[in-house]
Amino acid sequence: MHIPDGFINGATSAGFGVAAAGGVGAALRQTGKYLSDRQVPLAGLVAAFVFAAQMFNFPVISGMSGHLMGGVLAAVLIGPWAGFIVIAVVLLVQGIFFADGGLTALGLNIFNLGFIGALGGYAIYRMLLQALPKNENGVIIAAGLAAGISVPLAALGFVVQFAIGGTVDLSMGTVLTAMLGTHILIGIGEGLITAMVIGAVVRSRPDLVYGAPDYTGVRTEVLA
User: Fold this and answer.
1) Would you say the C-alpha torsion 83, 124, 152, 140 has a positive or negative sign?
2) Among candidate residues 68, 84, 109, 65, the one with its CA nearest the CA of residue 194
3) d(CA 149, CA 187)
Protein backbone atom coordinates (compact mmCIF):
# COMPACT_ATOMS: atom_id res chain seq x y z
CA MET A 1 0.00 0.00 0.00
CA HIS A 2 1.26 3.44 -0.84
CA ILE A 3 0.29 6.21 1.58
CA PRO A 4 0.42 9.67 -0.06
CA ASP A 5 1.64 12.91 1.50
CA GLY A 6 -0.86 14.58 3.80
CA PHE A 7 -2.97 11.50 4.51
CA ILE A 8 -1.44 11.14 8.00
CA ASN A 9 -0.46 14.20 10.07
CA GLY A 10 3.10 15.41 10.40
CA ALA A 11 3.72 14.31 13.97
CA THR A 12 2.64 10.73 13.29
CA SER A 13 4.56 10.60 10.03
CA ALA A 14 7.69 11.91 11.75
CA GLY A 15 7.42 9.35 14.54
CA PHE A 16 7.16 6.45 12.13
CA GLY A 17 9.92 8.01 10.06
CA VAL A 18 12.28 7.83 13.04
CA ALA A 19 11.28 4.21 13.65
CA ALA A 20 11.89 3.37 9.98
CA ALA A 21 15.31 5.03 9.99
CA GLY A 22 16.27 3.04 13.08
CA GLY A 23 15.05 -0.12 11.39
CA VAL A 24 17.14 0.53 8.29
CA GLY A 25 20.24 1.07 10.43
CA ALA A 26 19.65 -2.16 12.34
CA ALA A 27 18.92 -4.03 9.09
CA LEU A 28 22.18 -2.89 7.52
CA ARG A 29 24.15 -4.14 10.53
CA GLN A 30 22.36 -7.48 10.66
CA THR A 31 22.51 -8.09 6.92
CA GLY A 32 26.27 -7.67 6.91
CA LYS A 33 26.53 -10.60 9.32
CA TYR A 34 24.93 -13.21 7.08
CA LEU A 35 24.48 -12.10 3.46
CA SER A 36 27.07 -14.04 1.47
CA ASP A 37 28.66 -12.98 -1.83
CA ARG A 38 26.67 -15.55 -3.75
CA GLN A 39 23.42 -14.14 -2.35
CA VAL A 40 24.10 -10.55 -3.47
CA PRO A 41 23.02 -11.14 -7.11
CA LEU A 42 19.87 -12.84 -5.81
CA ALA A 43 19.17 -9.80 -3.63
CA GLY A 44 19.37 -7.59 -6.72
CA LEU A 45 16.96 -9.83 -8.61
CA VAL A 46 14.56 -9.84 -5.66
CA ALA A 47 14.64 -6.04 -5.48
CA ALA A 48 13.88 -5.77 -9.20
CA PHE A 49 11.00 -8.25 -8.92
CA VAL A 50 9.48 -6.49 -5.90
CA PHE A 51 9.85 -3.11 -7.60
CA ALA A 52 8.02 -4.33 -10.70
CA ALA A 53 5.29 -6.07 -8.68
CA GLN A 54 4.60 -2.98 -6.58
CA MET A 55 4.12 -0.78 -9.64
CA PHE A 56 0.73 -2.41 -10.29
CA ASN A 57 -1.63 -0.53 -7.98
CA PHE A 58 -5.27 -1.10 -7.13
CA PRO A 59 -7.48 1.76 -5.84
CA VAL A 60 -8.68 1.30 -2.26
CA ILE A 61 -10.00 4.60 -0.92
CA SER A 62 -9.58 8.15 -2.17
CA GLY A 63 -5.84 8.81 -2.50
CA MET A 64 -4.84 5.31 -1.31
CA SER A 65 -3.80 2.33 -3.40
CA GLY A 66 -3.04 -1.32 -2.73
CA HIS A 67 -0.49 -3.56 -4.40
CA LEU A 68 1.54 -6.72 -3.99
CA MET A 69 4.16 -6.27 -1.24
CA GLY A 70 6.89 -8.87 -1.72
CA GLY A 71 8.11 -8.70 1.87
CA VAL A 72 7.85 -12.41 2.67
CA LEU A 73 9.22 -13.36 -0.74
CA ALA A 74 12.31 -11.21 -0.14
CA ALA A 75 12.71 -12.33 3.48
CA VAL A 76 12.56 -16.05 2.70
CA LEU A 77 14.99 -15.78 -0.22
CA ILE A 78 17.63 -13.45 1.22
CA GLY A 79 16.79 -13.18 4.93
CA PRO A 80 14.43 -10.91 6.88
CA TRP A 81 16.84 -8.02 7.40
CA ALA A 82 17.99 -7.95 3.78
CA GLY A 83 14.34 -8.24 2.79
CA PHE A 84 13.59 -5.21 4.96
CA ILE A 85 16.31 -3.23 3.15
CA VAL A 86 14.95 -4.28 -0.25
CA ILE A 87 11.48 -3.02 0.69
CA ALA A 88 12.87 0.27 2.03
CA VAL A 89 14.96 0.91 -1.10
CA VAL A 90 12.08 0.05 -3.43
CA LEU A 91 9.74 2.44 -1.58
CA LEU A 92 12.35 5.21 -1.63
CA VAL A 93 12.94 4.87 -5.38
CA GLN A 94 9.22 4.75 -6.10
CA GLY A 95 8.58 7.83 -3.99
CA ILE A 96 11.40 9.92 -5.52
CA PHE A 97 11.21 8.96 -9.18
CA PHE A 98 7.62 7.82 -9.67
CA ALA A 99 5.68 9.83 -7.05
CA ASP A 100 4.25 6.52 -5.87
CA GLY A 101 3.79 7.10 -2.15
CA GLY A 102 4.61 10.36 -0.43
CA LEU A 103 8.11 11.15 0.79
CA THR A 104 6.76 12.50 4.08
CA ALA A 105 4.89 9.19 4.38
CA LEU A 106 7.97 7.09 3.60
CA GLY A 107 8.42 6.04 7.22
CA LEU A 108 4.77 5.00 7.42
CA ASN A 109 5.10 2.89 4.28
CA ILE A 110 8.39 1.32 5.38
CA PHE A 111 6.87 0.43 8.73
CA ASN A 112 3.88 -1.31 7.14
CA LEU A 113 5.70 -3.10 4.32
CA GLY A 114 9.09 -3.55 6.00
CA PHE A 115 8.48 -4.12 9.69
CA ILE A 116 5.10 -5.82 9.34
CA GLY A 117 5.41 -7.23 5.82
CA ALA A 118 9.01 -8.45 5.71
CA LEU A 119 10.06 -8.95 9.35
CA GLY A 120 6.63 -9.85 10.68
CA GLY A 121 5.84 -11.99 7.66
CA TYR A 122 9.10 -13.90 8.09
CA ALA A 123 8.29 -14.54 11.75
CA ILE A 124 4.95 -16.01 10.66
CA TYR A 125 6.77 -18.11 8.05
CA ARG A 126 9.13 -19.54 10.67
CA MET A 127 6.23 -20.39 12.99
CA LEU A 128 4.31 -22.11 10.21
CA LEU A 129 7.41 -24.01 9.16
CA GLN A 130 7.65 -25.58 12.62
CA ALA A 131 4.34 -27.34 12.01
CA LEU A 132 5.10 -28.40 8.43
CA PRO A 133 7.45 -31.00 6.94
CA LYS A 134 11.05 -29.78 6.67
CA ASN A 135 11.13 -30.25 2.90
CA GLU A 136 10.41 -28.32 -0.30
CA ASN A 137 6.65 -28.55 0.08
CA GLY A 138 6.81 -27.31 3.67
CA VAL A 139 8.84 -24.28 2.63
CA ILE A 140 6.50 -23.49 -0.25
CA ILE A 141 3.31 -23.80 1.82
CA ALA A 142 4.71 -21.82 4.76
CA ALA A 143 5.96 -19.03 2.48
CA GLY A 144 2.66 -18.79 0.60
CA LEU A 145 0.55 -18.70 3.76
CA ALA A 146 2.84 -16.19 5.48
CA ALA A 147 2.79 -13.92 2.43
CA GLY A 148 -1.00 -14.06 2.27
CA ILE A 149 -1.37 -13.28 5.97
CA SER A 150 1.20 -10.45 5.92
CA VAL A 151 -0.80 -8.34 3.46
CA PRO A 152 -3.94 -7.73 5.56
CA LEU A 153 -1.71 -7.36 8.64
CA ALA A 154 0.15 -4.53 6.90
CA ALA A 155 -3.21 -3.04 5.97
CA LEU A 156 -4.16 -3.11 9.65
CA GLY A 157 -0.92 -1.24 10.32
CA PHE A 158 -2.22 1.59 8.16
CA VAL A 159 -5.58 1.51 9.93
CA VAL A 160 -3.79 2.02 13.25
CA GLN A 161 -1.75 4.87 11.76
CA PHE A 162 -4.91 6.48 10.43
CA ALA A 163 -6.56 6.14 13.83
CA ILE A 164 -3.60 7.94 15.41
CA GLY A 165 -3.15 10.76 12.93
CA GLY A 166 -5.47 10.54 9.95
CA THR A 167 -6.27 13.87 8.28
CA VAL A 168 -8.92 12.74 5.78
CA ASP A 169 -12.59 12.91 6.67
CA LEU A 170 -13.33 9.18 6.58
CA SER A 171 -14.85 7.05 9.29
CA MET A 172 -12.74 4.30 10.84
CA GLY A 173 -15.34 1.78 9.74
CA THR A 174 -14.99 2.85 6.13
CA VAL A 175 -11.20 2.74 6.27
CA LEU A 176 -11.10 -0.64 8.00
CA THR A 177 -13.61 -2.22 5.60
CA ALA A 178 -11.93 -0.84 2.49
CA MET A 179 -8.41 -1.74 3.55
CA LEU A 180 -9.13 -5.24 4.77
CA GLY A 181 -11.57 -6.09 1.98
CA THR A 182 -9.11 -5.15 -0.74
CA HIS A 183 -5.97 -6.48 0.92
CA ILE A 184 -7.42 -9.87 1.79
CA LEU A 185 -7.95 -10.36 -1.94
CA ILE A 186 -4.48 -9.00 -2.71
CA GLY A 187 -3.11 -11.33 -0.04
CA ILE A 188 -4.51 -14.36 -1.83
CA GLY A 189 -2.70 -13.32 -5.01
CA GLU A 190 0.47 -12.51 -3.08
CA GLY A 191 0.41 -15.90 -1.41
CA LEU A 192 0.07 -17.75 -4.69
CA ILE A 193 2.80 -15.73 -6.42
CA THR A 194 5.17 -16.11 -3.45
CA ALA A 195 4.59 -19.86 -3.33
CA MET A 196 5.30 -20.21 -7.06
CA VAL A 197 8.49 -18.13 -6.98
CA ILE A 198 9.83 -19.75 -3.80
CA GLY A 199 8.96 -23.15 -5.20
CA ALA A 200 10.89 -22.53 -8.40
CA VAL A 201 14.01 -21.39 -6.52
CA VAL A 202 13.96 -23.90 -3.67
CA ARG A 203 13.55 -26.83 -6.06
CA SER A 204 16.54 -25.80 -8.16
CA ARG A 205 18.90 -24.12 -5.66
CA PRO A 206 17.76 -24.65 -2.06
CA ASP A 207 21.27 -23.74 -0.91
CA LEU A 208 20.60 -20.15 -1.99
CA VAL A 209 17.35 -19.78 -0.06
CA TYR A 210 17.99 -18.26 3.36
CA GLY A 211 14.72 -19.46 4.84
CA ALA A 212 14.97 -23.07 3.65
CA PRO A 213 15.91 -25.58 6.36
CA ASP A 214 19.00 -27.66 5.64
CA TYR A 215 17.18 -30.79 4.54
CA THR A 216 19.64 -31.23 1.65
CA GLY A 217 22.84 -31.38 3.69
CA VAL A 218 24.53 -28.81 1.41
CA ARG A 219 24.19 -25.68 3.56
CA THR A 220 26.19 -24.59 6.54
CA GLU A 221 24.43 -21.34 7.44
CA VAL A 222 22.65 -21.21 10.78
CA LEU A 223 19.22 -19.68 10.29
CA ALA A 224 18.16 -16.95 12.66
Assistant:
1) positive
2) 68
3) 7
% pLDDT > 90, the chain: 62
Quick one: which of 98, 71, 96, 101 has its CA closest to 86?
Answer: 71
120 DSSP assignment: I
**Residues, the chain, total?**
224
Domain ranges of the chain: 10-208
Q: 42 near 209, Cβ under 8 Å?
A: no
C-alpha distances in Å from residue 160, one per residue of 16, 108, 207, 210? 12, 11, 39, 31
Q: pTM to 2 decimals?
A: 0.88
Q: What is the largest CA-CA distance in the chain?
A: 57
> Rounded to whole angstroms, how far apart are CA atoms 137 and 156?
29
What is the signed CA dihedral for 114, 120, 122, 124, rounded to 10 degrees?
-160
CATH topology assigned to domain 10-208: Arp2/3 complex 21 kDa subunit ARPC3 (1.10.1760)
Beta-carbon contacts of 130 under 8 Å, excluding residues fewer than 6 positions away, are none
In tens, the pLDDT along 118-140 reads 999 999 999 999 999 888 999 99
Q: Tell how many helices (H) and how many strands (E) occur in the chain.
A: 8, 2
